[in-house]
Amino acid sequence: MTPLMSVSDAAEGAEAGARSAPVSWTDADVVARIQELEESMRAAMFEQLRLIAEAECRGLFGEHGARSMPAWLQGLLNIDYRDARGRVAVAHNVEDRATLHGEPVAADLPATAAAMAEGAIGLEHARVIVAGIKKLPEHARCHRLAEVDSMLAGWARQMPPRELAIIAERLRYLLDQDGAYRDEENQHEARELHYTTARDGMMVIKARLDRETGAKFAALVEPLAAPRPELDGEKDPRTAGQRNADALGAILDLAAGSDEMPRAGGQRPHLTVTVDFDELKRGLDRGDEDGMPGTLDATDRSITAENIRRIACDCEVLPMVLDSDGIPLDMGRTKRTAPAHIRAALLQRDGVCAFPGCDRPPGAPDAHHIVSWIDGGPTDLSNLVMLCGHHHRTVHGQRWEIAVHDGRPTFTPPSTVDPSRTPRPGGRATPAQHRALIERHLPRPRGPAHALAG
To answer: Domain named HNH nuclease: which ranges (predicted)?
Structure first.
C-alpha cells in the first residue's frame, strides 16, 4: 500500500508548496500535481476505511455511546449519515482480516481493495461495486464473487462511477434475470403521478415512473428541451428546468392535437377558458389593473385576457364567451383554428416558425393571427403566420408587428428591442427567392450568340 504522510510531513509539504506558488509551474506540472493529489487522497481514504473496519471490530462506537457505527462516524467526522453508512459498508468489504489463529484472510473484494490502495479508484467507485454485488443473487455471490469483483474493479479504473453503475446493473440483469424482472414488476406497481394547483395558480407535478415509462418521457422531452441556438451572440436564457417545462408544454400540445386521443362527448381533449367578451376585445394593457381576468375551467384558476388572446390564436382552445349576466353567448367557434390545408400551406411557406433566426426543433407550432381573430381577423394565409411556442409568446408579450409582403412575413420589432424598428424578414426563403438572390450577385451566363460575337 502507498505510504501515507504524517501530519508534520503534510505541514512541511504545505510550506514547500507556499514557497513554490503554482502560478510559476508549467502546465504539465499543474496537471501532474492534480493527479498526484487525487491518488494521495484516494489512498488516504482507503487507509481510513481500514481503520473504520478496525474501530467497528473493537466496538468503539458503543464505548462512545453511539447506537451504530454509521451514527458514531457521522458525529466523529461531521459528515452526512448516508456518507457514513456508505463508508462503513465499503470498509466491510475491503478490510484484511485474521482468523482466531492469526492467519491473514484476504478482503471480500480484493481487486477493489487493491485498486483503492493504489489510488486508482475512489470511494464512490467502491460504493457502486459494493452495491452492485449486494444486488446479485446468492448463487452468484457464492460462486462468482471473485470474477465479478475483478471485472468491476477493472472497469472502475477506466470509467466514472455513474457509468460503472450502469455496467453493474447490466451485469446483475445478466446473472439474475428473474430477480431483475421481479424488480421491474415491483417498480410498475409502485408507479405514481400526482398533480395539484398551488396557491399561486401554478401546477405542481410529482411523479415516480417505471423505467419503461421514464424512458419514453426522457425520449420525448430531451429533443424539445434542447437550448435554442444563439441569436446575435445571445445564448438561450432559459434554465434547464424552464426548458424541460417548455418541452412538456410542447408534448401536451402535440397530444391534444392528435386524432389518437380519446374523445369525450365527441370532442378531442381541449382547454376551456371563460372570459368577459369586452375585456377580451380590449386586450388589457399591461398597466390596466382593473381588467377582469378569464378562468381556466379545468383548474378554476384565473388567467389574464392578454394571455387568452395569445392562446386563442390556434391550438384546441375553445373560448366560452359570456354576456354581462354571465350567460354563454358562444362556445367553441373552432373556425378560428387554422384547418389542415391552411396549416400545411403555412408550414410550406414559414417552416415550423417564421420568426427571424428561429431554429427551434419541430414541436407543435401555432398559427398566429396577425389581426386577432377576436378583432375579426380572418383565418387565411394573408392573416396567419406560423410561430413556435416561445416566439408566439414573444410576439404577444413584446408586441411585435407582422405583415405579409409578396408571400413572406416581415417582423417589425418594438422600440424596446430595436429603437430604429427596422423590419426583419421572416419565414423560409423559397427556391425562387434563392435564385433571385444569386442572380443579383452573379451575372447571367452569356448565350451562344454572344459567345460567337465575342
So the answer is: 341-393
